[in-house]
Amino acid sequence: MGKQTLSGSQRWLCGLNFFASDVRDGLGPFLGVFLMAHGWQADGIGYVMSAAGIAGMLATMPLGVWVDGSRYKRAQLAGATVLLMVSTLALWAFPSPIVTTATQVLAAVVGALFGPAIMGLSLGLVGPQGLARQLGRNEAWNHAGNLTAAALAGAAGYRWGLPAVFVLMMLMGVGALFCVWRIRDQDIDHDMARGMGPTEATDQTDEPAQPRSIWRVLTGSRDLRMLAITMMLFHLGNAAMLPLLGQAVVARSRADPSAFTAATIVVAQLVMIPVALLAGRYAERHGYGWLVTVALAALPLRGAVAALWPSPWAVIPVQVLDGVGAGLLGVALPGLVERSMRGSGHVNAGLGAVMTIQGIGASLSPALGGWVAHRFGYGTAFGLLGAASASALVVFVLAKMAAPSRGATAAA
């Protein structure tokens, strides 16, 4: 396939992915080292992260439904960005237990909008035939934004301390708002954005009929159910691994917290950028099945390396493997959801449903990892997280074997 020319709105969507990368996830791995600097213990940090994860999990499905029914997706993203900036400033000014928990819960709820909203914009701009390539571009620009922000945060944090990370987040938020403003609303097909092709779209402007619940969405598609279970197990092992890696090194006093945390991000993002671009091109021709399989296989190996090599240098292989897994899944997950829900008018609700179920694993992961690390050591915690994530690969392979004709799902 020849070189594709991007429209102006597609270019600004790439820019949105670049700037939103640092905004939607809040402080990310910097949260742990920030709270440790204020006297928090590993288990307390884990509990706060889990509370935020549960809140985001519960909000994702309703937000996906909201995106499906809305013709104001740009306004949704702009409002979410502003709220995230406000919550980050509040955490910076008042890092007390109550304020910290409240801001992280708010950030998780608001941040849960970004996945369905950006998916809706992408589908509405390029349609299902161009989605695989666009998802690859989205992920590549998202990781490029994370890489840039992490490098700047590491340098600024080393020079001026962790408060510089907060300032950087504010600047990235302003950039995200500018990109949202430059995306042209008339370029967005709101029927395609919710998973209805031109032949199914109606000329009405009323909101589409909404699914009654997350269970209604999941029970309507076997492929979607198996994907949700797979992602839940994957994130049970994945979500806590990077924060714990940073906390382990800081606890052993082997590295500067800002610089090391930034290095963990930079290594992974350098891998994710080319992996995401290649994944989009591969999926366009061959489907998503092998992308998911390779991504799931990378995480148990990542946990084993982190558990067996208690050195700051372990960050290189650990985060290279993270880059492979995240780069592939960032493209494959929304692509699989779109193919499973195509024609339903509820693609973003379907994505919200899968993200809600995977959020169960992600929300439990920090509490589980923090509890084990606090009582049995970081090496044991890494081993347990890697073992938990290995079950995701088993479930995915067994699901494909049990239904080869639907291949399946993932192969499509």
From TrEMBL:
Pfam families per UniProt: MFS_1
GO molecular function, one term: transmembrane transporter activity
Keywords: Membrane, Transmembrane, Transmembrane helix
SUPFAM superfamilies in the cross-refs: MFS general substrate transporter (SSF103473)
Sequence intervals crossing the membrane: 44-65, 77-94, 106-128, 164-183, 226-246, 258-280, 287-309, 315-337, 349-372, 378-399
Coiled coil: none
Source species, domain of life: Bacteria
Chain ranges of the Major facilitator superfamily (MFS) profile domain: 223-412
PROSITE patterns tied to this protein: MFS (PS50850)
Name of the protein in question: MFS transporter
